[in-house]
Design a protein that fits this description.
157 residues, alpha+beta, two-stranded antiparallel sheet, 28% helix, 23% strand
């Protein structure tokens, strides 16, 4: 049965996976029919856009090989409009923790240390660390695209 917190967490996982969920009184069996009829019963967690297989793996199973700290301005840009096509550039990164290769999953955190997502990097940690702070405006400065990341609901700061 579990507590309310576990029900809300499960509904949130379902919604992030592209499935709407409702938390309602299950002791009243009529609630199920009322929910499917569209009545306002319980709390609806509307479905987000269904994630790709890679994004689903990142959100549910990927073990980060390292951590990338991202500038606050870039975090705000990434979280502002989740539907927009975005990318993380080398100029958006403050620091890199851990040793990982290209195509590795990493945690994304803001400068205050709060995690705000995960992603698959296109650049290894050594190359990324060596190039931090350089003014790079070429296409090879991309670290990851929106298709390669999942962002948490919570704002990073």
């Amino acid at each position: 049965w579990g507590g309310m917190a576990s029900k809300i967490e499960a509904a949130g996982v379902a919604a992030q996976g592209g499935v709407s969920a409702v938390v309602a009184n299950g002791f009243d069996i009529d609630n199920v029919q009322r929910i499917f009829a569209g009545d306002d019963v319980g709390t609806l967690f509307p479905a987000n856009e269904r994630p790709s297989a890679l994004q689903n793996w990142l959100a549910q199973a990927a073990k980060p090989a390292g951590r990338v700290t991202v500038k606050d301005s870039a975090v705000a840009r990434l979280l502002r409009d989740r539907e927009a096509v975005k990318q993380l550039q080398l100029m958006d990164i403050v620091s890199v923790d851990g040793q990982f290769g290209a195509a590795s999953p990493v945690s994304l955190q803001c400068t205050q240390g709060k995690l705000f997502g995960k992603g698959v990097v296109q650049v290894d940690s050594q190359d990324m660390a060596e190039r931090l702070g350089q003014q790079l405006w070429s296409l090879d400065s991309r670290v990851m695209s929106s298709a390669d990341m999942v962002l948490t609901r919570a704002a990073a700061h």
